[in-house]
Reticulocyte-binding protein
Amino acid sequence: MTILFSLSLIINIFSYVNIRNYKYRIGKESELNIEDLRQRNESNMDILKMSIDQGCIKNDELLKLYKNYEMISNDIIELWEQYAEYKSNSFSIFSKKIEIKKIIPNDINSKIRECMFILLNQAMKNKEPKLILNENYLNDFIAMNKVSEKIYNYFEDFNSNRLSNLTGSDREKEIIKNKYWIDMLQGIYDINQQYTSIQWHISDIENSNISDIIN
């Protein structure tokens, strides 16, 4: 009886340690995705603001926007996958939950990426060093900038309220420990939901191959 109890105790401890390490790994990966998303969003916001002010955008900046939105979209996909892993390895009464209205959450960034794809095709056809933003393009850029600003302000408020005075590894540990990456994913999801019905003027995707200029 004592042997069985000891064996059971060892197995339970081993399982607990494995689950804890597993959750830490997910938290670590998620924190990296969140940080990448945050930095790329700030970069996009700077480019969008400058383009709106100037009424045009250079081709290399357009390409940078495309790549950033592609990576942000990938970050969000990975975050949802990590959240699904977290849920499947947590007791429901103790786990953090994200309130979503759809089985597949809408990602506004993937739609904006498609817009950048179209504009890149347009820029290649024009063979000019920059693309003039007509009224429709300009309105879309203003809408994109609003999304970026909301995400930027969300991160600023979150950092101020929950991660004040924390930087580097201390900040990273706090995010992982408190599973703040889940709260941040919820915040990003909520912002996305505000723009699900927006109609982009840049809408006709052309079947051109831009892999040569992307690579």
About this structure: The chain has one domain: 25-208. Residues 205-215 have pLDDT under 50 and may be disordered. Residues 25-208 form one domain.
